[in-house]
Amino acid sequence: MTYPSFAGVLAGRPGYVQNATPLATITLAILLMASLAPVAARADGPVASASTTDDATIAVDRLHVLLRPLSKDQLEMEVDGWLELLQAKINEVGKTELKIKDLAEGETNDALTTQLVELRTEETALIERTQVVLDAFAAKGGDVTEATQFITAISDIGEVTDTTSRWAMIIAMARNWLGRDDGGIYWLKRVILALVIVFVFWMISKVAGRIAANALARHPRASSLLENFVRRTTGGVVMVVGVLMALAAFGVEIGPMMAALGAGGFIVGFALQETLGSFASGLMIMVYRPFDVNDYVSIAGAEGTVKEMSLVSTSLVTLDNKGLVIPNKKVWGETITNYTSKNIRRVDLVFGIGYGDNIQKATDVLLEVARAHELVLDEPAVDVRVDTLGDSSVNLFCRPWTKTSDYWTVHWDLTRQVKERFDAEGISIPFPQRDVHVFSEAASD
After folding, report:
1. How many domains does the chain have?
2. Would you say the pTM of this structure is higher than 0.85?
3. How far is residue 138's CA from residue 67's CA, in Å, rounded to a whole number?
């Protein structure tokens, strides 16, 4: 008899041993069975497989959570599992397309077309989830080049049949996607939620701004400029929070956006140094309030009524109705004259009389005219004094006090009335004049 030698079996090239004893044969069989036992045990034991492919319609955000703790090797098995699901679905799509192609020319089958649309939709959903798994695998060092090329190659919607156009297929798939819980319905809910959040925060911003402005209005030193600024700023901050929450509800990652805004803000701030200077000056003006809306002021060499102020500029309207916009940096950096900051104001008038006129009589006339005006205040009292001895006149100043709102009325009325009384009393208001003396020398003999 001939028996396979043990060494030959292990080498994969069994030889034969001549005249081997039964004992040797038994020993060889035992050793061979012992060497094959671990292999059999491994074949019968559990085999590792993908853990996230049990539900092919799993929500994407849930899939992200399940993939996060997996290692690179575990993610590789997940990739294989999802690719197998995707390949199986592509096979189904292909079989359905072949059935449609086998239809006679001009013949249609709505059931097959609907089935194809559903399969294509499921294929798209599988591609989306497979891509999520590939991204997680690549983030932990995996090579996804071939898998990505495969998905790119099969993602195109090709020709379906001669009777079903590409656009009809796209429209059908779009309708199917709109009706899916993880498709159109899902995004519609997100859009509606984002719009509701924006609307609610818009309402809150209006109420919050009004409440803040009303609370500030109770402060005796709060200006209209500061109230407007607080109202707008409060409303703006609330709206920014609302927009960020709406973006988060829509699925946008806020963290990277905030980081990008921070970096962009540094660059913009460096480029807008002058504007930021005016911004800081605007805050100082609002806090110290050297003027308010409707005040008549003189700033940066210009006079006018304050109509509006922002954080970067102040708008004036001059007496001849010209609009001026002055940067706040220039406003705060120069002298500010506020003509309407007080309730009462002194009217400074100067009248010249001739050197031959009676000063006391002119003084009495000025006092009488000023005191008789209904808008001139009794306190402080009217003051009349000799001011200067000019080249051609004796100048007397007249200083009545009136309410700030009546300043120009009193100024114009007294100027006219004093002229009329001086004329009636025979008090002259001389023109500028100069005496010229001519000296002649006697001719020499």
Report:
1. 5
2. no
3. 12
